[in-house]
Predict the structure of ABC transporter ATP-binding protein.
Amino acid sequence: MSLALEAVSVSVGYEGKGTTARVVASGLTVSLKAGEFVCLLGPNGVGKSTLIRTLAGMQKPISGSIRIADTDLKALSPKQKARAVSVVLTDSLPQGMFDAYSVVALGRHPHTGWTGSLAERDRQRIEWALQAVGAGGLARRQVSELSDGERQKIMIARALAQETKLILLDEPTAFLDLPRRVELMRTLRDLSRNEGLSILLSTHDLDLALRSADRLWLLDSEGGLTTGIPEELAYAGEIANAFRSSEVDWDNEQGAFKMHNRACASVTLHGSGAIEVWTRRALARIGYEVGSEKSESKIRIQIEARGNGFFWKVESEEGSERFESLHELLQGLLGRSHQAANGET
Ligand SMILES: Nc1ncnc2c1ncn2[C@@H]1O[C@H](COP(=O)(O)OP(=O)(O)OP(=O)(O)O)[C@@H](O)[C@H]1O
């Protein structure tokens, strides 16, 4: 399969004052296949934006070579580059007195003549790009009057209007609410599959990336880059390593980070279905660890069905208590913790 993008031994960073460069990440050898949808993940400040800007030819690599569709990036003229790769940066949302259609039309620049006048084909592509990101209704609105999320969509439509086979996006979901983030990821993934576009996007949305990317590029705080399919990287503990922190633990069964458990007591929990899941989460939130049946926990919580709802029975050395709601259960347990902390019996 041909490669849409290939980086060999690339170091990225910034020219320092004098001769020393500030290297952010080095020795990066990585590629993006045609039609592949890849998410770039990594903790704050590891160099995701720097890498995206470098791969897009907006800043020079400190060393190494970058090829786009088998051509050295350095050999491309600005117009050839604009036909080969489009970029969406979060810090470049459009301002000013333009309507959204005009901003998307700017994406046609590499395809129009020197007058910039739009042919029928250009107009069709602009319409298609607006529809593809669900922004058809925004076309005649002034960009200065759009929300950040709406302007983000317009910038993505502009990149689509540019009609490149390679699209690089830096945190395109940053301003979107959860349903819009899911929609956008799905749209981009479908575009890569249906239109054969190669898409690389950086994101902090780990869960969405795990669920939608064909492959992940994982940049760690030592500047190392690990790539692989999401499930293999998660299972092998690579994601946990890249985001290691004293505040969170990676839960390999849930495929998510959870807050580091500073458990004040252990309980056993008996129940099933969604109510069991949410009871478990509520207990974890107030610092109770749910142990297995074999654990030495002295508190046993049983969830029982009652009519359309549930009640919670708590058995311990102090006797048995019944709580009519999850809220009451938590109040009861917090009362116990408080008494224990004050040495009361
Ligand atoms: N113009 C610049 N000049 C010098 N250093 C910079 C410049 N821009 C960014 N940096 C530094 O480069 C490093 C990587 O920054 P970058 O923005 O690429 O990280 P990131 O992974 O995208 O972070 P985040 O997840 O917070 O967006 C940081 O230490 C940052 O301070």
Remarks:
- The first strand starts at residue 3 and ends at 15.
- The mean pLDDT is 89.
- The pocket of adenosine-5'-triphosphate is lined by residues 14, 22, 24, 42, 44-50 (CB under 6 Å).
